[in-house]
Give the backbone structure.
Amino acid sequence: RKANPRRWTAAEDEALRSAVESHREKNWKAIAAHVAGRNHTQCLQRWTKVLAPGLVKGHWSPHEDELLRRLVAADQKNWGDVAAKIPGRTSKQCRERWHNHLDPAIVRGAYSPEEDRLILEAQARLGNRWSVIAAMLPGRTEDAVKIRWKSHCRVWRARKYLRTNPGAPEAEAEGLSEPAMTPRTPLVPVADGAFVWPKVDAADDRRTLPGGESMQ
């Protein structure tokens, strides 16, 4: 399992700012030499995506959205080039804004039972690889698929709580925190809006649906 990257500290950020001021964003290996434990790629990414003056964070304005649409319509899909023409935005911000919000191919309607089943079964097999799962559902975005899966988890959690706590108010069940979910505890649909946790065979870690149908 891939380890989570170490968080940047305030002291590291200050060291990076000082080094960039000295070297003027020209020699990232020299800059990294002033930030203990960080390489030049990490320093470059931290600066361009987080610390550089002028970066814009948070909600996109209508003007920014319209500019992004025009740039993409002009066949500019090099996100670095696109970001260079939208002051304060990074290539990652531009790419995610387009793919998750502005792309005309995005499907925004209700989910079909088949889409729900695909999302839940794919998460059971792949874990939280939302970009891969979203690619299986034409028109659905990575963010939308993740939100849909979490919604199913909340519904299942609330129903289970109400079954085990007769008489409890529905508002109390709806306010439950989300359960810790991993690929080893996948939620899958069965019928009529019901969901179950499939059994896991400890011998070979096969996940099966009710009735014994293999998910792998």
